[in-house]
Structures are given as C-alpha cells and as structure tokens.
Write a structure and sequence with these properties.
Chains A, B: It comes from Plantactinospora endophytica. 2 copies of one chain form a homodimer. With 401 residues, chain A is an alpha+beta fold. Chain A has 9 helices and 26 strands. Chain A folds into 2 domains: 102 residues, Roll (SH3 type barrels), CATH 2.30.30.230; 283 residues, Fumarylacetoacetase-like, C-terminal domain (Fumarylacetoacetate hydrolase, domain 2).
C-alpha cells in the first residue's frame, strides 16, 4: 500500500504508474509519474539520488528513458514503487509530489515514425460498406496481413491541443472545391510506444514485442472524411489525417497491463508463420468516447483482429528499422455494436443517422467548439483498475485566409 | 574565379557549393561544402572564425543551419564564395580543404517527416496501365491535386548504404506467401529539403516555397513491387517502400539552381486557387539512371506536372506543420519515352520486357549485387553546369532467418 493516501483505490495507484512530461510553476518540462491525483517529479527524484537512471529521467522528453530497455524500465519501476510505499521514504518524496491540477501535461516523447494500422474487423468492414456499398466489405488482403500506413509524426500533439478544422479539397457533383472540411471525425485508437530501437535490415519477431515496446497511449486520429475520400486513391490517406493526431499524456507501461492480456479473436485463415503469435493475445482495454459530455460509444479493444505483437512483426518484417519514440496505432477500435464504434463515420453510418447529445442538439460530424474525450481502463492486479488517462480535443474554427 | 584551380570548369565550382556532412581521419561527422573534388570543412572554418553562423556549422547534421532561414543561408553562401575566390583567404582556407576521396559522406540531415508525391503524369499513367490494364490510366483526382503520402523517415539513408532485399508477403495464385521480394525496383526522384518550420494550423502558400525550402537532393525510393501490389489497398504503400530510401549526400541549395527554373507543363483543367503558382515553374534537372554501369534512362525533371511549390502548398493546406529536416520527394520522374522512365517497372513494362546490360546480361527487376546510380545535372549561370551528385545503392541478399 502506498503512503500517498489519496492514491488508494485509484486507477492510478502504484499498480499503474504511467509516465508523462509536465510543466509547473513556470519551469521547463520535466518527467513525472502519476500516482493518484499527483505527479511525482522524477527529475527532482533523480537529482536527489532517490532513483537512478543515468540522467535519463532528467530530460525534457521520455526518449532517453524509453531507450534504456526492459531491464532498466523494471528497475526504475520497482524503485518508484518502493519510494511510494515504504514509509521511510515519505519525508524525502512527499515534497516531490505535485498536484495534478497544478501542472500542464505536454507531449511525453518525441515521435519517431508514426504508423497507423487498420486492425478492427468491425471498423474495416463498416468503412468498406459505407465507402464501397455493394462491394466487398473487407478487401482480399485484410485477413492475411495487418494493413497499415505511415502518418505524419510532426503533427502528433498532446491531449488538449486545439484541433483546427482543416481546409482542403473535396469533390462535389460540380467538381472539386476548396474549403473547410465538412465531415470532421474522430478515430478512437490505442497507440504503442517503441522504446528499444532495431537495426535497418533486422526484424522484430512476434516474440520480441515486450523487448521493444515500452507502453501504451490513447490516440485520436482526427480525420477529415471529405478530404480523405477524394485524395486517398491510389496512395492512401494523406491530408485527411495529417492535420492533427492527439495522444493521451500518460504512457502506461506494459508492466501495468500484465493482467489485461486476453485471448485475441481466432484468425481464419491461418496467418503466415512470421505473424503467428503463441499465445495469441490482445489487451482488454475498455475505451469510452464522450461527445460534448455525452457518452456515445464504448469500444472494446479486446476484440481487435490483429494483435500489437503481430503489428510490430509486420511493420519490421521488411527490415525497417525501429527508432526510440516510434509510435504505432491500432487503427480505429470498433466493436460489433453501433454503441461500440470508434468513429462518427460509423456511429452515423456515413452521416446518414443523427446522434442526439445530452443538451438536446444533434450531430453527424464534428461542429466547431465540440469536445471529444476518449478514455480507457483495463483490469489490474487483485481486482484493481488501471486508468489510461484521456485524450481530449476541442474543434477550433477553420482559418480560411 | 576560385583559387581552387581544380574546381574551375567543374559542375561543383563556386556557382554550386552543395552542403553535406562528412567523416574523415577517424573524426566525428562535420559539415562541409563541396568545391571541385574537395570538401571545405565548415566546422573548421567556423571554429577559425572564417565564417559565422552562430555555431550552426559546428553540428553533426545540417539541421541547425537549415533552420536559420534564407537571409542567413545567403550570408553564409556569399561568405563561402568570398573565401574560395579572394586570394587573400587562400592561406587560411586551403588547410581546410579535404580531398573528396578521403572522406565518407553520411546522411546530411536528420529527417523530420518524409512525404512522397506522384507528380509525373507519364509515371502515373504508365503505372495505371500496368496495374489496372483496361482501366483509367489516371485516376479522377490526379489532375486536381498532387497525390502524395507519408513514407518512413527512419529508413531514409545516405547514398552507398547497402539495400537489403526485403522479406515480405506477396500474393500468388495459390494464396499469399512469405519470402524475399522478387520484384525489387527503383524510383528515381528529386527530394526537397525543408529548412524553416511552420506552425501547426498555419499554411505555406505557393509563393512561400523559397522561404521554407533550402535545397534539393536526389532520391531513390527503393520499391518492392510484389509486396506493394498485395498490401496497398486501401491505405497505400507501406512495407513495399519502408525498407530503404536513399538520398544523395549533397544538398544543393536553391541559390545554385537559380538558372534552372523553366516553365512547367500547362495544367488543364485549371487548378484551385491555393495551387495556382504564378509563374508556374519547374526545375530543369536532367537525371540519369545507370544499372550496373549501363545507362538505361535519362528522366527529365522539367516535365513534371506538379511543381515543387504546388506540392508544398498542398502538403500544408490542411494546417500540417513543417519541421526543419522535413523531406518531400517528387515521385518517380518519368518522361514520355521509354528511355526516360524512372522505374524498372516502367522500363520493363511490368517485367514483360527484358533490359540488356553492357555485360551482356539481362534484367527485369533487380538482382542481388546489382548497383544503381542516379545522377543529375542542371544548367548553371553563364553556361556552367550544376552537379547534383549521385545516389548509389547496391542490393544485398535477403536475410531469411
């Protein structure tokens, strides 16, 4: 039990301990770990010799710490638990606890490459039916490999960053026009943060997932459906996605999710050997999507067809190098039911069915001023809950000029 | 006239002065500028106070220098020309000239995001005919916007880096199989290097190209056509490209290409306002492609349908931020004739027609051990020629394990 009384029973107790980067009291960004509704200042803790990580905790981003690898991640975590549970450390550590409401949380790591997968069967087949009515809902490759593509790493931002409605080109019956996107959407996703790099020409197999991946964030891959629909053939999504991708401020380490692994859906037909993960496990993360405060969906991550280990093995099978800070996302998390989908495209079935919000207003796609909050929890040890924080964004009006 | 006698008449005279990063005599990487067959050590020059750029030339990559912006780029260039032409500087500068054959040239800048366009009408329609026989050779969006997508920044490498044949998944009549790519190809391209960043939510218009772009590299976007053909729907190329993208070691500044601008092909239908560049200019870069020493193609960059300024305006129209080190490439440069194409897919028309090399052997796609060299020149001032260096790669065998 932690001596941080307020953390007892919290989804952010010492069984969780997610890492982030915060600013407070006008100081420059520092690494911290969340415990209850406090941030433990790890920069201060390392400066005081309370935890030792070769100054990796005294940096403005998590990258140096992410690069240390699993043995040192575990050592640091074990020490932090010790600091927060042994009464003898209380006097030294208590002054390093900063109330969460006194900090600003910033982007926790510098993103290397950003890859987005498309691994929910329900999402892929919904999108197929909406965009290609009468056609195949799943394309022939979908069950053979985790379809994915590269997004724009430079526009991955911290939760809370305003999402400026993108300008762009869309097609109309009278030809292409330029203007603010009229079909602005979300994609509720889970992101995996790479710590340990791999060399060019090498490969990271399904069994090496935990040696390279440090932890998990929530991710909103904001999407302009009108821009995307016009631009995406034949090279895939580009400007319909690259204006903004938001991530949650807390990177939840894999150690905190040890009790959240569950059997992933059976795969039929059988996958090629390099994608065969035994055991074949997904993460039981339970997402929530709130639209201006109205809970509109609860996407279940456990039902994803492709697992995080398979995604990583596929991503590197061609010899692509990994860098510390690489981020790969699951793709939109959608379950089988309409109240489990991770995009408004699906929730409104292509904009055809309105959603009623608690204030009595209705929506198809996002209006200026709308706020979307994606949260998640996972089962922790001994009946506890692990919180994954939230990724929040509010739509700012387009800037036409 | 430069006092570096060997540089007179060279495509790397003081009218060119491309920047790179080199290693020599066991020392760590330093910034240099090429003059004739020498590298002028700019790290040494700044250390000696011969050129001043706030220590931006004393870094292991060009990024800090790229971030300085056009006014300082011009100041530094003017000063380097002075150092290399005024006899009074000879005694101080000559010791800083390192023969090119004594240096190793490394990746000149840390790549931010890497975007690849698809801006040659001949290439796009050739690929359309090869991949979609009987269908439209150009898709409906192609003349309305410069189609592009994000590639993997972390696998952009320096010229000379071995290109390991990728393993991966391809489809066969008997279903998907895993193995070394059997259709390994090149894409001869021109890359544009962003110096000055732009804020998220802002836009860089067609007229602001020269305020943000520092210069030009040659680029080979190595492509595994079998992997690409199976994976690319609906989200675009992924592993078929992400194993390796090579760039030339010398970044040729826009100043050196001032005489290379020529009218770009007329665009019909007219483009939307945000893409209208007046004057509508392309660069008269004359590329060469050598396959094991046999010249197989001379792609003309001047014929590209979309201009570099239009590509940049499109890339940022949705508010996407630019970072120093962002790299965007033209897409495969192909002219109208078969001996002007920038890929072997086109040269062999999908692998149907063999190419005869000078040693009497024939090829469709790349064999292990093959070397491809892409070079280019441009017209310089007063009848001179500007050399863009070369991007070279040799195919190493796949690593099956």
């Amino acid at each position: 039990m932690t001596w941080v009384a307020e953390a007892a029973g919290s989804a952010y107790g010492v069984h969780n301990l997610p890492y982030g980067v915060f600013r407070s009291a006008g100081r420059s960004p520092r690494i911290g770990v969340r415990v209850g509704d406090f941030v433990l200042d790890l920069d201060g803790a390392e400066a005081a010799g309370l935890v030792l990580a070769g100054d990796a905790l005294r940096q403005p981003t998590l990258n140096a710490f992410l690069a240390l690898g699993r043995a040192q991640w575990t050592t640091v975590r074990t020490r932090i638990v010790e600091l927060l549970t042994a009464e003898e450390h209380r006097a030294a550590v208590q002054p390093l606890l900063v109330p969460l409401d006194q900090v600003e949380l910033v982007l926790p790591f510098e993103v290397g490459d950003y890859v987005d997968f498309y691994s929910s069967e329900h999402h892929a087949s919904n999108v197929g039916q909406i965009f290609r009515p009468g056609g195949q809902s799943l394309l022939p490759n979908w069950r053979h490999l985790p379809v994915g593509y590269h997004g724009r790493a430079g526009t991955v931002v911290a939760s809370g960053t305003p999402v400026v409605r993108p300008m762009g080109q869309r097609n109309t019956p009278d030809g292409p026009v330029y203007g603010p996107s009229t079909r602005l959407d979300i994609e509720a996703e889970v992101g995996f943060v790479v710590g340990v790099p791999s060399p060019l020409g090498g490969r990271v197999g399904v069994d090496d997932f935990a040696a390279h991946v440090f932890g998990v964030v929530l991710l909103n891959d904001w999407s302009a459906r009108d821009i995307q629909a016009w631009e995406y053939q034949p090279l895939g999504p580009f400007l319909g996605k690259s204006f903004c991708t938001s991530i949650s401020p807390w990177v939840v380490p894999l150690e905190a999710l040890a009790d959240a692994w569950v059997p992933a859906p059976a795969q039929e037909p059988a996958v090629l050997d390099y994608l065969r993960d035994v055991p074949h496990l997904g993460l039981d993360l339970r997402l929530t999507v709130d639209w201006n405060g109205t809970r509109v969906s609860e996407p279940p991550f456990a039902g994803m067809y492709w697992t995080p280990a398979q995604q990583l093995a596929h991503l590197t099978v061609n010899g692509a190098a990994l860098r510390t800070g690489d981020l790969y996302a699951s793709g939109t998390v959608s379950g089988p039911r309409r109240d489990q989908v991770g995009s408004f495209l699906e929730l409104t079935w292509g904009g055809a069915e309105k959603v009623l919000l608690a204030d009595g207003s209705t929506r198809t796609f996002l209006a200026d001023g709308d706020t979307v909050t994606i949260g998640a929890t996972a089962p922790g040890p001994d009946g506890t809950t692990v919180g994954l924080g939230e990724v929040v964004g509010t739509i700012a009006p387009a800037r036409p000029d």
